[in-house]
Amino acid sequence: MIPSDTHLQIGSLLFEGLDQIDLTGPFEILSRIPNSTYRLYGKSLDTVRDIRGLRLAADALLADAPPLDVLHIPGGYGQEALMEDEEVLAWVRKQAAGAKCVLSVCTGALICGAAGLLKGRRATTHWSAFELLPIFGAIPVNQRVVSDGNMVFAAGVTAGIDGGLQVAADLRGEEAAQAIQLYMQYAPEPPFNSGTPETAPAPVLSTARKNAQAITEQRRATAQRVAQRLGL
Description:
Elements: E1 8-13, H1 20-30, E2 36-42, E3 48-49, E4 55-56, E5 60-61, E6 70-73, H2 79-82, H3 86-98, E7 101-105, H4 108-114, E8 122-123, E9 139-140, E10 145-148, E11 151-154, H5 159-172, H6 174-184, H7 202-230
Parallel strand pairs: 1-2, 1-6, 2-5, 6-7, 7-11, 8-9
Antiparallel strand pairs: 3-4, 10-11
Helix pairs in contact: 1-5, 5-6
């Protein structure tokens, strides 16, 4: 836990084609961490769209970010382009090196992998990309939230809320995290038990796997190409 009188700089990476809940779920928590400043950072200040078309804009450019105490890397289909974007990867590496915590959500883990941050790390990601983690030298762990050193990995999409709460607890203590959870009234009671491959009905899972097949194979090819360059 970080002393409460220590001000924290918290930043999220914004990019075209991210999944907005990967960003906005953790934002609900990270932006409420006591004695902190939260900002969105991107390659441009132009509006970007998430995978469903929601418009978002960065607060500042990557180059203008201070050394961050918390670095948040969301995922989404747009993660593909970033895996070979050396400007972004260099920024992620530099910020992660000095951060007290790196929070990866969903396929943000693959961006971390492309930045060389996953080797030897216990990690998780969205179920459709889970099998790609070893390509970057990671140890895949099938859990909703996985912590390893200064890194916290959240699985797919809504798991970023759980990961954000874990980060808040690590930095400011459980009571602070619980206060944020209460404000959010985060006490999920979904109407269906279909949120993981293990619990989803077989026909639903089969259709979901077919729908994800193209992007999964694209991600695999990109991951293998990047990992080869990294010597993994």
